[in-house]
Amino acid sequence: MRPQDPPTFAAPWEAQTFALVVALHDRGLFTWSEWAEALGVASRRGERPADYALWLETIEALLAARGVTTAASLSDRRDAFARAAAATPHGQPILLANDPGA
């Protein structure tokens, strides 16, 4: 990377999302063609670029479609994360263990 080039990932969660996609592919949960098609459909549906937030939404949709998880389970996890984030002091890592509703 040259000094004037922007970083590949703007935040750690983007790198983690990228790594998650690669790991799920490596485990055989989808092919690269399936991933590209799903990401393209999601991008066109929302008329937005395929940023890492959209990558995460696409992973969730693929996993739910394949029966690896459910929409309800994903919703519950998002809610738990939001509660944990609200209960976590500023500057500290957000851990699901910090969810006061757990």
Protein architecture, described:
It is a single chain. The radius of gyration is 16 Å and the shape is globular. The protein starts with 11 loop residues before the first helix and ends in a 15-residue tail after the last helix. The mean pLDDT is 91. The protein contains 4 helices and no strands. It has 2 domains: 11-19 and 31-69, no CATH class; 70-102, no CATH class. It has 102 residues and is mostly helical.
Number of strands: 0
Largest sheet: none
Number of helices: 4
Mean pLDDT: 91
Rg calc: 16 Å
Distance between the amino and carboxyl termini:
43 Å
Instruction: Give the SSE order as H and E letters.
Output: HHHH
- The assembly state of the depicted protein chains is single chain
> Which runs of at least 5 residues are low in confidence (pLDDT < 50)?
none
Q: Helical proportion?
A: 55-70%
Strand content: under 5%
Q: Tell me the structural class.
A: mainly alpha
